[in-house]
Structure formats: C-alpha cells, structure tokens
Amino acid sequence: MTRGAVPRVDPAWWAFVAARAIPGVEDAALGQVRRPVPTEDGWVTATVSRAGAAAVLAAPDGAMAAVSRWVGLDADHAAAGAALADDPTIGPLWRARPDLRVPGTVDPAELALRTVLGQQVSVAAARTLGGRLAALLGEPGPDGLRVFPRPAAIADAGVVQVRAIGLTQARARTVVGLAAALADGLDLTPGADVAAARRALLALPGIGPWTADYVALRGLRDLDAFPAHDLVLRRRLGGLDPAAALRAAERWRPWRGYAAQHLWTAG
Hints:
By secondary structure, this protein is an alpha+beta fold. Among the domains are: about 1-70, DNA-3-methyladenine glycosylase AlkA, N-terminal domain (TATA-Binding Protein, 2-Layer Sandwich), CATH 3.30.310; about 110-205, Hypothetical protein, domain 2 (Endonuclease III, domain 1, Orthogonal Bundle), CATH 1.10.340. The chain has 13 helices and 7 strands.
C-alpha cells in the first residue's frame, strides 16, 4: 500500500463525496472515504483521509493515478488560480476557497452511469438508486466492499430488471443503453477524444447536454467543460439561459470546469 501526503484540499471535497457515497460501494465517514478502484491486476481498496487541511492517499501503486484524479490533483491548480483569481465573479469565490479542486472519478464508466441515475432527482435519491443497483448487479469487492455493476452486467440484465430498482421505463432504457455503449467500447477515460465521446453520449436516447458535459468534466477530465444547462450554475450567474451562460463563461477558458465547481460550491 502506497501512502502520500498531497497538497491542501478544501473540505468541500469530503462533503461532496460523502453526500454521494453509494452504500456498500463507498464507505464515507467524517474525514475519510474508502472504495474499490480498478487496476490492471483487479480491484483494490483506496482510502483518502484528512490530515489537517491536506489529504493523505492510500492505495497500491497501480491505483494512485486514478485516486489522484478522484481528488482532483491531476489539474494544474496554480495555472487555474492565476487565470481565475482576479475575475470579478470567480475571483472572490477562489479567494474564499483557494484549495477547491474539481473532483474526478476512479471509474469513468461508473461515473457516467451514476450521472444518468441522478438525472432529475435529488442527490440523496440518486445515492439510494445507486445502492440498489449495486446490491442487485454489483460484485463482491475487496475488504468487504462491493464493486459498482459493470456495464456488461447492466446491459445483460435489461430494462425490466434495471427498472425494478425504482426507475421509470425511460430512465431504465437510458441506463441500459449507456451500459451497452460502454460495454461495446465507448471510451470515457481521461485522454480519450472528448468531442467524439460527447457526440456518442448525445446520440443515446435520454442523454442531453448536461449529462454529456458533466461526464466530460469529471470522467474525461476536460477541465474546460461547462455544464451550461445546470440550474444551479445558471442561478449563480443571475438566471441566465444556457446559451447566455455559455457566453458568460467564455472569459474563464480554458478553466471553465474550475469556475463551475466554484459556482456549484458557493450555490
């Protein structure tokens, strides 16, 4: 198990993860969270713990890069700060939370599926649905945890079985359709072609711009992605429509994702 102290991480990261922790898959307590992480050698457990204002990552070597992305340490934080700290809108938010980073994910496929489960429901409801799906189709993981269902397992289960966790027929079709696309090779990993992945997501029934942009930001790690259809972002920008929100965000390029994270956290 490799351990390493990392730069300061805003407490909002733990609040964000704990609020969304899927029962059985993620064990989140005050100041610590652990969960399974995929590696070339199988699933391993990773833990992120608070040590004052910093975080300590604990995971095997093969999982450390994914865990770093999960915490948001893969970005050039200093460059983002230099670009945004003097902005009239984001600057005050940045100065209030200079250690706020954009959370990533250890598993982009899981993130995409969880994002669809969370469409048009509360964070708590999405967490409940994720827990039900993990109990239904997940696999035993390391250290008593469960592995979130693999795309192939969801695709093979089909709409009727997936709907039984409490989804509408339309939402179940979207989950199964996305799972099938992922099982067939849709690449949402960092370094993949963001534009191509976004087009592929938008071609799936039930997936719109908000979902595609959110997955681009947290899964593909396009830190210039900006989910302009997000209601909280639009409210924080004065009630703008999506097109106007995109225009307003132009001045934050290439760090619009950081701007979004600060607006979400402030809102």
